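Help needed: design a sequence for this.
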């Protein structure tokens, strides 16, 4: 399918990359239909709205930047996206790239949980204070010897 994107113009995307977020993202509840688009900069991925071409979120796999990351979400919450099998889970976190030169961060406190089987997604809010909304990606990679 052809998709108009915020950052990459018109792109062709496989329908397997469609993601439905029934409750929307926090602050963007009215937007429920998205597609995952590979970024030109690995390991980042774009979550592009299909309802508003100027709405896109940069995402990253949190396990790449935080090896001890844990997502503890109540099973009842996961049923909202029909998630019952742990093998079907794909976790991604929203990335913030500030325009003022401050650190690029990932929101580890509010991960996106995608059911790979049916492409349903939800945003969780983790109660563990260990996880922040501003996890410094570059500092994390440096501490792991990644850069």
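Sure. Designed sequence:
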């Amino acid at each position: 399918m052809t998709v108009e994107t915020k950052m990459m113009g018109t792109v062709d995307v496989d329908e397997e990359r469609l993601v439905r977020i029934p409750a929307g993202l926090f602050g963007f509840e009215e937007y429920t239909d998205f597609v995952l688009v590979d970024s030109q900069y690995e390991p980042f991925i774009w979550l592009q709205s299909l309802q508003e071409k100027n709405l896109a979120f940069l995402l990253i796999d949190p396990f790449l930047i935080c090896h001890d990351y844990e997502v503890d979400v109540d099973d009842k919450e996961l049923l909202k996206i029909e998630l019952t099998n742990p093998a079907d889970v794909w976790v991604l976190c929203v990335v913030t790239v500030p325009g003022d030169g401050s650190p690029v961060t990932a929101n580890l406190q509010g991960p996106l949980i995608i059911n790979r089987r049916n492409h349903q997604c939800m945003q969780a809010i983790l109660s563990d204070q260990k996880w922040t909304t501003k996890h410094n990606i570059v500092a994390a990679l440096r501490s792991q010897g990644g850069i």
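The mean pLDDT is 94.
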